[in-house]
Design a protein that fits this description.
The complex is a heterodimer of chains A (354) and B (171). Chain A is an alpha/beta fold and 354 residues long. Chain A folds into 3 domains: 138 residues; 39 residues, no CATH class; 127 residues, no CATH class. In chain A, 31% of the residues lie in helices and 14% in strands. The two termini of chain A are 17 Å apart. Chain B is globular, with a radius of gyration of 15 Å. Chain B starts with a strand and ends in a 10-residue tail after the last helix. In chain B, helix 3 packs across helix 6. Chain B has 171 residues and is α/β, with parallel strands linked by helices. In chain B, 54% of the residues are buried. Chain B has a single domain, classed as Rossmann fold. In chain B, helix 5 links the parallel strand 5 and strand 6. The longest helix of chain B has 18 residues. Classes of the chains: A alpha/beta (354), B alpha/beta (171). The structure holds iron/sulfur cluster (SF4) (3 copies) and FE2/S2 (inorganic) cluster. The site of FE2/S2 (inorganic) cluster (FES) has 13 residues of chain B, from helix 5. FE2/S2 (inorganic) cluster binds next to helix 5 of chain B.
Chain lengths: 354, 171
């Protein structure tokens, strides 16, 4: 080993620009979701940010005729914020829309949950958008509800609305019947194992820090897969990979997939051929997972949007587990100014070469 | 066992086109006829491992002709996609070889490789590739003997596993 390397401290690829290392702006706090004042305060906050010219756009959610499915909306003026909503059905991770504003001259506000906020931080750390261009309006998230779980709880009846309490939800059907089910029974899968529901970085925060839910289910499933033989694992993943229709939704929503030219869209060389044979299906799945390793924030949005239900979390979290074991780095998106562990090295790294 | 005394000369012929099209030949994937020989792709960095293989050749040490060397400027140049592509196009095993830590011609390339490789190795195993089909080695330019040993051992491991079907384009 040469002298120069021996004396070098653990090396980061390139130093992080200084402005990312500056202390966080002190955050303001608003009422928590569930508080009767909450929605009014959130709208006021967004309205004044736009009115006072602090931001020129706000990415948030808007009501739709289906009360279980608010839509993502882009607010350009204070007047529009009247139908801005935030309830327990704001499942969509909106951070990726920030990249549509790469060339937008102005600042953008984003209304984000804990998992979404990690995506914003990851985009900033990956230098996709500058920190000062984003106003992070964070919400300490009590957990989001899966509309499909509500609908299956309601059985045949059409759901007209859902009133969420701290531990249970009331489902009101079109016929006016009401039923009460435990909150945990209708929460989305990712919320059931969410350890970090609070935005790690924000300019305004609504609510007090939430505890989150500690479930090891995903890691238990991973451990179970690890105990299988190669042939069993091969069969397990083959069964899932062969169902992928390559809609690329998992890539499109992912805050770690920010490449302007994705390898899967390249013609020359044509890394990914069109034919859906097991070679190509594997190539796609393995490459996507490996590309996001070390930068995947564990938001599980990819898993949520996959139309054929491929358990992408079992790959992403496996990679995260290994990256964490090997290189001892923080969960991506939880800290500003952190580079991916895969673009750094340390002479003392574990050695799997023979 | 077929042997190749001048592997270096053969490796010189290996172009990227061969790597990305189904140009593999030599050791065959003729399973079932009793003549099957494992096909192994070895990605070797130019400055150490490839020189090690070259040394083995010039000192007339024999290593299995099953090994097809793809010369890369540095182990850091080995994109994980190359590894997948090799398996796709018919490799039964893939070896990655570079300079020993601290000896990389570009100073730090192999440190990056080591991190990436550790993650990819565990992941390939996780999705069901047999762990013996993929390995990494530090081989210097003076370690012709180590190259020969590694090539032999790896070839025998892969031989005992039989043809690889995982990720393979045409079975
Ligand atoms: S899959 Fe890979 S190349 Fe494509 S956007 Fe994601 S990280 Fe980039
Ligand atoms: S890979 Fe999935 S879980 Fe990870 S950051 Fe991307 S969308 Fe979120
Ligand atoms: S979202 Fe699901 S089906 Fe679509 S490309 Fe990703 S894994 Fe395949
Ligand atoms: S030149 Fe051999 S590993 Fe970098």
């Amino acid at each position: 080993m040469s002298e120069a390397i021996k004396t070098a401290a653990p090396v980061e690829g390139e130093p992080m620009p200084a402005e990312l290392k500056t202390a966080e702006i002190p955050t303001r706090r608003g009422p928590a979701p569930g508080d009767p004042e909450f929605l009014g305060a959130l709208r006021d906050c967004c309205r004044s940010l736009l009115a006072e010219g602090h931001v020129q756009r706000i990415i948030a959610y808007r009501e739709t005729p289906d009360s279980l499915r608010p839509e993502v909306a882009f607010f350009a003026s204070p007047e529009e914020t009247g139908d801005l909503v935030w309830d327990l059905f704001c499942n969509t991770n909106i951070c990726k829309y920030l990249l549509d504003y790469r060339t937008f001259e102005g600042r953008i506000g984003v209304v984000v949950k804990g998992c979404d906020a990690r995506g914003v931080v990851q985009l900033i750390n990956d230098m996709q958008i500058p920190r000062d261009k984003v106003e992070i309006i964070g919400i300490c998230c009590p957990g989001q509800i899966d509309p499909a779980k509500v609908e299956s709880a309601a059985g045949e009846a059409w759901v007209s609305r859902v009133v969420a309490g701290p531990d249970s939800v009331e489902i009101v059907t079109e016929e006016g019947t009401e039923m009460r089910v435990p909150l945990e029974s209708v929460l989305t899968d990712r919320c059931l194992s969410c350890r970090k529901p609070n935005p790690p970085v924000a300019d305004v925060v609504f609510g007090e820090d939430q505890k989150g839910r500690i479930s090891d289910e995903v890691f238990e499933q991973i451990a179970e897969l690890e105990r299988m033989s190669s042939a069993e694992r091969d069969a397990f993943w083959n069964r899932h990979f062969e169902r992928c229709i390559r809609c690329f939704a998992c890539r499109n929503v992912c805050p770690a997939c920010s490449c302007t030219k994705c390898v899967f869209d390249q013609q020359e060389p044509d890394w990914l051929a069109g034919e859906r044979n097991q070679a190509n299906q594997h190539f796609f799945q393995i490459t996507r997972a490996v590309h996001v390793s070390g930068r995947c924030t564990g938001c599980e949005e990819c898993d949520r949007v996959c139309p054929v239900g491929i358990p992408l979390r079992l790959m992403n979290k496996k990679l995260w587990k290994d990256v964490k074991d090997l290189f001892d780095s923080p969960l991506p998106g939880t800290k500003l100014g952190v580079r991916s562990p895969l673009v750094m090295w340390d002479p003392k790294d574990a050695d799997s070469f023979e | 066992m077929p042997v190749n005394e001048s592997a270096a000369a053969e490796a010189e012929m290996m172009t990227e086109a061969e790597m990305t099209t189904d140009g593999a030949s030599g050791a065959g994937a003729d399973a079932g006829t009793g003549t099957w020989e494992p096909r192994i792709v070895a990605f070797c960095c130019n400055w150490c491992s490839y020189a090690g293989a070259d040394l083995a050749g010039t000192s007339r040490k024999q290593y299995p002709a099953n090994i097809r060397i793809v010369r890369v400027p540095c182990s850091g140049r080995i994109n994980p996609q190359y590894i997948l592509r090799a398996f796709q196009r018919g490799a039964d095993g893939v070896m990655v070889a570079g300079c020993h830590p601290g000896d990389c011609h570009y100073t730090t390339g192999n440190y990056y490789t080591r991190r990436r490789f550790s993650v990819v190795q565990r992941f390939l195993e996780y999705v069901g590739l047999h762990p013996d089909r993929f390995s990494g080695h530090w081989i210097s330019g003076s370690e012709g003997e180590k190259f020969v040993q590694t090539a032999r051992e790896f070839t025998e491991k892969v031989r005992s596993l039989g043809p690889n079907e995982k990720m393979r384009d045409v079975l």
